[in-house]
Amino acid sequence: MRFKIVLLGAIASVLSAPAFANSVLIQNGSWGTNVPNENDMNAVFGNGNYSEYGFNVNPLTAFSPANHFVFIEGGDGQEANFQNFLTANQTTILNWVHNGGSLLLQEAGWTAGAYAFGPGTIGAAESDLSSCGTLTGAGAAAFTFTATPASQCGNYLSHDDITGTGLTDFMMASLGVNVAGAGYGSGYIMFSGLTDSEFHYSGGGLNQDVIAYTADQGGGTAVTPEPGTLGLLGSGLAGLAGLIRRRLA
After folding, report:
1. Is 231 contained in some domain?
2. Which residues contact 33 (CB under 8 A, 6 or more apart)?
3. Within the chain, where are the H helices?
4. Is residue 120 part of a domain?
């Protein structure tokens, strides 16, 4: 009986295992502190329900099939580390997104040039330095995790504009768009020129909305094994069951 329980437990575990269960934050003290982004991640996912790394993280750890959402912060003086990390690991990251991952790239930079990644480009240093911004219709419909105002300001709210092909624009700044995203394969990439929420007069609501919406995109919330995988699983479990029966005989 004990072997049957173990076997049934193994079957249930394999068939119900989530493909993308976890969330990740990658940052390195932008704006002099990691706390605002940590607070926003805690608000969205619950206290401590995510993993946090610096730019020295092994990309295979951050972009594992076990992770569904990754937020990379590159604002303040970290834009060089942010861009270098993305460039060095571009293939790994884009493959992960294409397979169902949801990626938030946030860079309110100072000095670095414009940076293109996948379908979008984050503008050159302070390409759209904006005190205020207003949600588009798509933004108002999408950003519902908190009750933040459609128009809000900060010191500053954002630094850079977002351009690209096939993007949905979620927020307008002084000169252009500062939050926009698009599907990429089975996954999703959100581009943000926002500063972190310590500079937002309305608090962390906007950034939390961006995090929550992005994390809800992509195709990796659950896994359904392909027929071939199920066949192999069934054969292996049948063999295991036969071995158990012989040992019990």
Report:
1. no
2. 198
3. 2-16, 35-45, 59-62, 79-88, 90-98, 137-142, 205-215, 227-248
4. yes
Distance CA 69, CA 242 (A): 40
Q: What is the pTM of this model?
A: 0.81
- Tracing tokens 């884009």 back to the chain, one arrives at 94
In contact, 31 and 198? CB cutoff 8 Å: yes
Domain total of the chain:
1
Instruction: State the pairing for strand pair 162-164/187-192.
Output: unpaired
Bridge-based pairing of strands 187-192 and 102-106 is parallel
Q: What is the DSSP string of 91-155?
A: HHHHHHHHTT-EEEEE--BSS---EEETTEEEPSTTTT-EEEEEE-HHHHHH--SS---SEEEEE
DSSP assigned state of 198: G
| Residues ≥6 apart with Cβ < 8 Å to 11 | 237
Strand, helix or coil for residue 201: coil
How many other CB atoms are there within 10 angstroms of residue 144's CB atom?
Answer: 11
Beta-bridged to residue 109, according to DSSP, are 76
Report yes or no on 130 lying in a domain.
yes
Whether 27 is covered by a domain: the verdict is yes
**Using CA atoms, how far apart are residues 9 and 11, in angstroms rounded to an integer?**
5
* pLDDT tens digits for range 7-31: 444 434 433 333 345 999 999 999 9
Q: What angle do CA 223, 224, 226 make, to 5 degrees?
A: 125
User: What is the per-residue pLDDT across 120-166, written as a single tens digit (0 to 9) for each?
Assistant: 999 988 888 999 999 999 999 999 999 889 999 999 999 999 999 99
